[in-house]
Every structure is written in structure tokens, then in C-alpha cells.
């Protein structure tokens, strides 16, 4: 099988999973399946966290430690499965709201005095040295992403506690990701107007470049002094 075909298959699988998971999550949490088949809700709600754990185990240089952790997690799941079946909606909520709150913190902490804004770091990874207006704009974008991600987390919390699981599930499973895509589009349009001289790259170009340099910590300055 050619490399291009393998890549195509990989992206098809990723796209299928990205579509199937929110549909299955909504079905297991906001329909009669929540009471008639609670094990499905537990399995689907825990799937992302367990997938990350398995991926970290596979990549870990101390795999035996991670395997021991997996065994402990497996034992806890076995022992508390009944509790999880009665409360798996909380797993969904904490996973959704908590992830966005964590991402907001990742962006926001880099806005502290003396720190380099995360989007500035992304831009540097793609464009190299930045002009003063580019640094100022990328810092404003970091603030915008911080507030946006925090807003998603807050809306998720309000809907979960006050609007019911059905409404919350629609927002969490079907609206959150399109809102993120809309945020990318809006930011790109604003950047075209604010920085017309800058070469056209998306924030994802910077994210991917940043991902390939794991030694650089969020907020770390590029100034060697």
C-alpha cells in the first residue's frame, strides 16, 4: 500500500471517528439509552481519556510504570463501574468543560508579565522574527483565545446545571467544534486586515510547528538572555 493511500485511509478513519463519537456520545447521554444501556455511556464517556492514557503508555520511555498505571485504572473502573453507570453524565461534563478550561489556562498563563504569549510563539515558529505590530496582534489573539475557550467552558457549565442534559449534549457534542472552526475563520479574516503584509499562514501551521519542538515550554521567551 502506497504512503499516500495510507495517509488517505488514516484521515478517513480520523474523520469517521470525529463524526461518530459526538453522535454516539449524544445518543448515550441524552436519549433513552442513558437508562437502558448505561454501560455504553460509561464506555463512550471514558474513551477519550483512556485513548490518551494508552497513547502515553505506548510513547513512554518507562512503559512498565505506565502499564502499572493502566492496571490500577482498570482495577478502579472495575470496582466503581456501577457508580460510573449512575453518574457517567458527570464524566462527559467534566471532560468537556474541564478540557476547555485547561486550554484557556494554557493560553492565559502565557499572558503574564515577562512571558511570551502562546500565539506569538506559534507565529515565530512559522514566520521567524516578528515586527512590533505582529507581536502586539499575536498577544491580542492569545487573549481572544483565552476568553473564547473560557466562555465555552462556562456555557457548558451553565447548560449542564440549568438546561438539562439534552440541551447540554447538543452544545457539547455538535456546537463546540463548529464554534472553534468559526473562531479560526474570524481570526484569519481579522488578521488579513490587521496584518496585510504578513505571509498567509493559519494558526494551525504554528501549532504544528510548535508541536514538533517539544523542548520549548509554553510561555518561555525566545530571548536567550
TrEMBL record:
Keywords associated with the record: Membrane, Transmembrane, Transmembrane helix
Protein's UniProt keywords contain Translocase: no
Transmembrane segments: 12-30, 36-57, 64-84, 90-111, 143-164, 170-190
Keyword Transmembrane helix (UniProt): yes
Signal peptide start-end: none
Name this protein carries in UniProt: Transmembrane protein
The organism of origin for this protein: Thiobacillus denitrificans
Amino acid at each position: 500500500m502506497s504512503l499516500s493511500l495510507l495517509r488517505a485511509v488514516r484521515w478517513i478513519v480520523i474523520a469517521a471517528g470525529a463524526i461518530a463519537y459526538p453522535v454516539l456520545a449524544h445518543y448515550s447521554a441524552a436519549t433513552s439509552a442513558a437508562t437502558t444501556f448505561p454501560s455504553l455511556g460509561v464506555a463512550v464517556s471514558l474513551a477519550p481519556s483512556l485513548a490518551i492514557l494508552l497513547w502515553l503508555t505506548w510513547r513512554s520511555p518507562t512503559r512498565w510504570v505506565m502499564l502499572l498505571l493502566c492496571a490500577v485504572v482498570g482495577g478502579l473502573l472495575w470496582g466503581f463501574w456501577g457508580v460510573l453507570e449512575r453518574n457517567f453524565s458527570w464524566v462527559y461534563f467534566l471532560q468537556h468543560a474541564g478540557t476547555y478550561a485547561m486550554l484557556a489556562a494554557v493560553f492565559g498563563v502565557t499572558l503574564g508579565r515577562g512571558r511570551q504569549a502562546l500565539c506569538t510563539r506559534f507565529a515565530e515558529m512559522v514566520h521567524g522574527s516578528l515586527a512590533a505590530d505582529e507581536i502586539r496582534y499575536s498577544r491580542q489573539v492569545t487573549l481572544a483565545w483565552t476568553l473564547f475557550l473560557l466562555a465555552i467552558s462556562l456555557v457548558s457549565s451553565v447548560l449542564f446545571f440549568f438546561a438539562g442534559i439534552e440541551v447540554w449534549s447538543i452544545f457539547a457534542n455538535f456546537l463546540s467544534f463548529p464554534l472553534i472552526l468559526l473562531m479560526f475563520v474570524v481570526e484569519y479574516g481579522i488578521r488579513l486586515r490587521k496584518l496585510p503584509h504578513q505571509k498567509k499562514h493559519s494558526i494551525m501551521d504554528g501549532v504544528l510547528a510548535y508541536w514538533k519542538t517539544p523542548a520549548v515550554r509554553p510561555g518561555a521567551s525566545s530571548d536567550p538572555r
